[in-house]
Amino acid sequence: MIVDAQVHLWAADNPDRPWPAGGRGLAHRDVPPTVEETLAVLDGAGVDRAVLVPPSWEGDRNDVVLDAAERHPDRFGVMGRIPLAPAAAWLLSGWRESGLLGVRITLHREPWRTAFATGGLDWFWAAASALELPVMVYGPGLSSPLRTVARRYRGLRLVVDHLNVPLGATGADAFAHLPELLALADLPNVAVKASALPCHSAFCYPFTDLHDPLRQVVGSFGPARVFWGSDWTRLPCSYTDNLRLITEALSFLGDAERELVLGGALLTWLGWPRVVKGQTTT
Fold it and tell me: Which residue range forms the structural domain that includes residue 235?
């Protein structure tokens, strides 16, 4: 089974459902992807499932992705968003009943980055740890403080998105932070998402400058804690070439390791069963 660890779905900015200020300038594309388009992309590459993630530019909304997952439970799961304010803590208690596999937060922009640095998210870490809630987090430049969080809150099931590569960084600059990321590997409650990586390569497929960083990541975390993902709406290459990076280009991966990275490990980490409504996708 192949599972894409990150796919965005969103709805257009309009008066009935307005985005936060500045959101339009952050969207990956002008026309939002549809569920049908997304399924066609997955099917064209032979990908069985995808984790749907509401994008930050749309605000703290889960309606679009939850609707898609309800209509296609054998194809989609959801890592939802919640407001990062203590008053929203009650939303976490029923996370699984609300149709979520977990929660995703992003710390690369304000005000969330400052809130994290000043302890303003301690309530979230504590609640997520107590619930053993899977949390995906994108925090470029924050691998070391995230290590402190993961050590303090051992119940957290933390996934560091995009290997914490900064937006816009390519080639060697993209992985200048790699030692700090690898230092997280000794914590069993931390995994990493190898997603959107062609965005950070200076080359076309087979993206040779990604091979050694990925070898180090898999060597440190092990294939059971490395999850492939696309973030396909911002890829500079075809969806298939992004997948081929794992299926064909990385010669250091054996068959069993590749199966884990391509989805087997993610299903286990998120507690997402292979059998959904009596059907098994293989």
Answer: 3-280
Per-residue pLDDT tens digits for 87-101: 889 889 888 888 999
CATH number at residue 204: 3.20.20.140
Query: In this predicted model, what pLDDT tens digit does every residue of 137-159 receive, in sequence order?
Result: 999 999 999 999 999 999 999 99
Cβ atoms of residues 160 and 139 within 8 Å: yes
Q: Give the Cβ contact number of residue 36 at 10 Å.
A: 8
Element (H, E) at 137: strand 134-138
User: Hey, what are 37's tokens?
Assistant: 């388009």
Q: How many residues does the chain have?
A: 282
Cα–Cα distances in angstroms (integers) from residue 228 to residues 99, 146, 163, 225, 261, in the given order: 22, 21, 11, 10, 6
CA-nearest of 225, 224, 161 to 197 is 161
pTM (2 decimals)? 0.95
